[in-house]
Amino acid sequence: MHLQEQHLSGVRLTVITVCYNDLAGLRRTIPSVVSQTRQDFEFIVVDGGSTDGSLEYIQSQTRIDRWVSERDGGIYNAMNKGVGMAHGTYCIFMNAGDHFFAVNTLEQVIPLLQDKDYYCGQAVMIEGDKAETFIPPADMTRYYQINDTLCHQSLFTRTTQLKKRPYSEQLSIVSDWKQFFESWFFDQCSYQALPCIVAVFYRDGLSSVHVDKLIAERAQTLAQMPHEATQVKETREQKEKRRKEKLQKEINKSMAMKPIARDWNIAASAFRFLIKDLFH
Question: 9 vs 50, 108, 110, CA distance in Å?
Fold first, then answer.
């Protein structure tokens, strides 16, 4: 374990990177953290005992405040371990392969972290040569929680809440979704969307690859929750707002396409929404 105490007094934010045998990912993630224009944050790296040169790379970094390299019980065990070492008021997970959107991201975000339990910013999702923007909902609803999920790469969580309700280590993919849902619904935690892009991540991660397992784990988790937590009926206003957000997502996705495909996709999306307006 490595420790630099000079960064830890009164720290507002802890950045945690979890990794295992992903040296290429670390080489993308760590520089985006250590190059931030605002440096009054704590940086923790939790490595699962890598043997691919990741440990040597971590040891070469002087800006990492605390790190550990040892066998763990999986990604959520590693994330809980990182939270256990955190001194910051808020934590964000920027795991190996993901990175901050810009060098001044934390300079923009840290002043916005005030009294809410959760803050979620926008993120850019990259798959091959396509890019799509994730925009968190302005208002959190049970319908969104049941049918969608926040982007953990752009989610700032109050550390005390992560320690009160740690990630379930029995789940392998959806524990971060479960942690927020239960905190928001059962603990009445507060939430606020941030007006800026926080992170970039790539659709080659665990939840992106194992879609069937993600769906099964989420269904299993919902089935174990009380009836009042999972049963929800949308109001007319909520339904209209959700449809508008879905259309905006389609447009954002289309903008990453080549011109002809982009224009056709936007037109097709608009037509689908028009048909829904006419017949619903």
Answer: 30, 21, 16
CA distances from 176 to 167, 171, 207, 267, 276 (A): 6, 9, 11, 36, 33
For residue 278, pLDDT over 80 is answered with no
Residues whose CB falls within 8 Å of the CB of residue 57, separated by 6 or more in sequence, listed in order: 23, 26, 27, 30
d(CA 138, CA 251): 18
**Which residues are 31's β-sheet partners?**
none
Instruction: Kindly give the residue spans of alpha helices, DSSP state H, lying in the chain.
Output: 23-34, 54-59, 75-85, 105-109, 142-147, 159-164, 175-185, 206-209, 211-223, 227-230, 236-254, 259-279
Pairwise CA distance, residues 5 & 1, whole Å: 13
Type of residue at 271: F
Q: What pLDDT, in 10s, does the model give residues 248-265?
A: 666 666 666 556 565 555
Q: Helices 175-185 & 75-85, crossing angle to 10 degrees?
A: 50
Region of residue 199 (phi > 0: left; psi between -120 and 50: alpha; otherwise: beta): beta
Contact 64, 58 (CB under 8 A): yes
The distance from CA 144 to its chain's CA centroid, rounded to whole angstroms, is 15
Q: Is the model more confident about 101 or about 205?
A: 101
What global pTM score does this model have?
Answer: 0.80
Looking up tokens 């206003």 gives 237
CA gap 207, 211 in Å, rounded: 6
Nearest CA to 159 out of 74, 93, 215 is that of 93
* Per-residue pLDDT at 147: 85
- What is the tens place of the pLDDT at every residue in 151-180? 999 999 999 999 999 999 999 999 999 999
pLDDT one-digit tens code per residue, 66-99:
999 999 999 999 999 999 999 999 999 999 999 9
